């Protein structure tokens, strides 16, 4: 693949976004690097948005884009959906407040609806983010098994806390053997004990996973994975079935992190597609329609470890002294089960019950359009993903199976394609996945395919032109 010098996408980007650059320079005087979440940053500077509605976003230079970032998949109904706004307003009007600080009816109503689509959630708890949900799931697993080491998969992300911020995006040169990856920290400030207590497994390699888990079965209390890595690389069905069987045999809690896949592979998430029931499930992102939420659900015998009726609580010294706080699994949070957010979540389910099939169909049409263009221009690669999220990869591999396969793709050209698409009004953060929403129209899909057509012509040359 030869690169054509049609224009310089980075120069065009800078010319198009001067106000974003100026904003970020000011922001850097307030926040480190100008951002309050590292994921929002990219070079030479992020695009700063000032307005969004439906499937579009508008930046501070008045450039309008079709948005496929959708807040990293959170906005499955798009920006500012009227039904969600109405649900929030009705909740406040009906209840008179947006926060009780006590139990309320929406906690039960939302929970029952989730149980309809996730039967594995015999009991559940609300948190404020997917990160909090995965953190709680590990505590629940440890309380249930009495084993405190955990296993995760290379390239899988479960939140920014120490125990799981291991081997998320490691250097392949340092990552060790593919069948037995090294555990590598992904941040400053992490104690080495987290590296020692987190086993790294190879995704989609059942034989290697089983060997590693059997070797440490007396120490490993939980295996956590994204059933679809990064929301784009699906697990093989035989791998999922085999992992379920092995963890059950070894007394290890199997946790599906469906923060990305919940509501995006269908209302029942990846576990419904695979027909595999985990012991625990974590949800977030799309479930809240753009508001912060997390959920942990699973087997009653595991979740009930968090019931306050089991004994003394850390905040309640009036409880019986026959037990102490350490005898109860602690989980709390002022905003857990926030009424306004649960009202939004109920509206999301209402919308998706009617439209999820159409969203997945539109996603497939977009993917097919991109794949056809790659084939037409004889570019090696195409789309990868299932449901309403996917990514674009440039590779001669027939199938992307794991993190290392993804690292061997042509990342530099993918980045160039992303910046060229920005010039044509197609937005996702460079190198990020695409998330389609109920608000994307057929016209949006057509415009996006046309933009890909133009970009592929700009990037690749040959006799076919």
Automatic annotation (TrEMBL):
Protein name (Swiss-Prot/TrEMBL): Aspartate aminotransferase family protein
**Regions crossing the membrane:** none
Q: Which PROSITE patterns match?
A: AA_TRANSFER_CLASS_3
Please name the GO terms that the record assigns under molecular function: pyridoxal phosphate binding; transaminase activity
| Keyword check for Transferase | yes
Q: Which cofactor does it need?
A: pyridoxal 5'-phosphate
Which UniProt keywords are given for this protein, alphabetically ordered? Answer: Aminotransferase, Pyridoxal phosphate, Transferase
Q: What is the species listed in this Swiss-Prot or TrEMBL entry?
A: Salibacterium salarium
């Amino acid at each position: 693949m030869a690169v054509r010098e049609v224009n310089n996408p980075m120069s065009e980007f800078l010319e198009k976004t001067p106000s974003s650059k100026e904003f970020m320079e000011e922001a850097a005087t307030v926040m480190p690097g100008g951002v309050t979440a590292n994921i929002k940053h990219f070079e030479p500077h992020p695009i700063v948005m000032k307005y969004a509605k439906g499937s579009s976003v508008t930046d501070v230079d008045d450039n309008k884009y079709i948005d496929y970032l959708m807040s990293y998949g959170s906005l499955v109904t798009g920006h500012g959906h009227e039904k969600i706004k109405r649900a929030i307003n009705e909740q406040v009007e009906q209840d008179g407040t947006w926060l009780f600080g006590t139990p309320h009816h929406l906690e039960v109503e939302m929970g029952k609806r989730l149980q309809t689509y996730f039967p594995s959630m015999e009991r559940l708890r609300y948190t404020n983010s997917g990160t909090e949900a995965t953190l709680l799931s590990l505590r629940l697993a440890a309380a249930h098994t009495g084993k405190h080491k955990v296993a995760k998969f290379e390239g899988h992300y479960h939140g920014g806390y120490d125990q799981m911020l291991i081997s998320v995006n490691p250097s392949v040169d340092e990552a060790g053997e593919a069948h037995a990856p090294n555990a590598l920290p992904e941040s400053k400030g992490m104690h080495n004990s987290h590296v020692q207590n987190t086993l790294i497994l190879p995704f989609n390699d059942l034989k290697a996973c089983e060997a590693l888990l059997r070797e440490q079965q007396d120490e490993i209390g939980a295996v956590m994975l994204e059933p679809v890595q990064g929301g784009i690389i699906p697990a093989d069905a035989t791998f999922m079935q085999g992992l379920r069987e092995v963890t059950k045999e070894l007394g290890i809690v199997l946790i599906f992190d469906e923060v990305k896949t919940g509501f995006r592979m269908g209302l029942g998430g990846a576990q419904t597609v695979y027909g595999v029931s985990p012991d625990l499930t974590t949800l977030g992102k799309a479930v809240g329609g753009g508001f912060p939420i997390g959920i942990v659900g699973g087997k009653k015998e595991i979740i009930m470890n968090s019931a306050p009726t089991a004994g003394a609580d850390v905040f309640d010294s009036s409880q019986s002294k026959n037990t102490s706080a350490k005898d109860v699994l602690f989980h709390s949070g002022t905003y857990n089960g926030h009424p306004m957010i649960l009202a939004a979540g109920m509206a999301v389910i209402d919308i998706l019950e009617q439209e999820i099939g159409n969203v997945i169909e539109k996603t497939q049409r977009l993917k097919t359009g991109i794949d056809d263009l790659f084939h037409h221009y004889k570019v090696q690669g195409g789309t990868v993903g299932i449901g309403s999220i996917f990514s674009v990869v440039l590779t001669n591999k027939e199938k992307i199976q794991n993190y290392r396969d993804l690292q061997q793709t042509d990342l530099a050209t993918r980045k160039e394609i992303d910046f060229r698409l920005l010039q044509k009004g197609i937005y996702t953060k460079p190198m990020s996945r695409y998330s389609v929403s109920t608000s994307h129209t057929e016209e949006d899909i057509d415009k996006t395919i046309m933009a890909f057509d133009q970009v592929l012509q700009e990037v690749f040359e040959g006799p076919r032109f």
